């Protein structure tokens, strides 16, 4: 008997998965597509995490969807700009307090 989580058929959604999918704008169709067309990216104790694009879906071995989320968009240039902007803002705040 193999201990891998290769379940691609959805049996049901957990209450947690339903709440998170509604909060995050993820439809049942998105989840189905992730399981049908995605790849298994991680396995835990009785669970598997499937990925399709930015969508991640955790499914138990018996087919219950446990949760789903989208990974953040990655833009290194924007991340650097935000970091520099935050540093400038903190620097200005520090100098204003010191001048008073």
TrEMBL record:
Bias (Basic residues) occurs at 71-100
Q: State the residue spans of region: Disordered.
A: 70-100
Q: Which domain of life is it from?
A: Bacteria
Q: What is this protein called?
A: DUF4258 domain-containing protein
């Amino acid at each position: 008997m193999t201990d891998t989580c290769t379940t691609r058929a959805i049996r049901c959604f957990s209450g947690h998965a339903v709440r998170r999918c509604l909060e995050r704008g993820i439809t049942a169709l998105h989840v189905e597509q992730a399981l049908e067309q995605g790849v298994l990216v991680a396995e835990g104790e009785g669970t598997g995490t499937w990925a399709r694009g930015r969508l991640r879906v955790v499914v138990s071995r018996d087919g219950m969807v446990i949760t789903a989320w989208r990974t953040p968009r990655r833009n290194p240039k924007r991340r650097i700009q935000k970091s520099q902007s935050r540093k400038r803002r903190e620097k200005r705040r520090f100098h204003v307090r010191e001048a008073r």
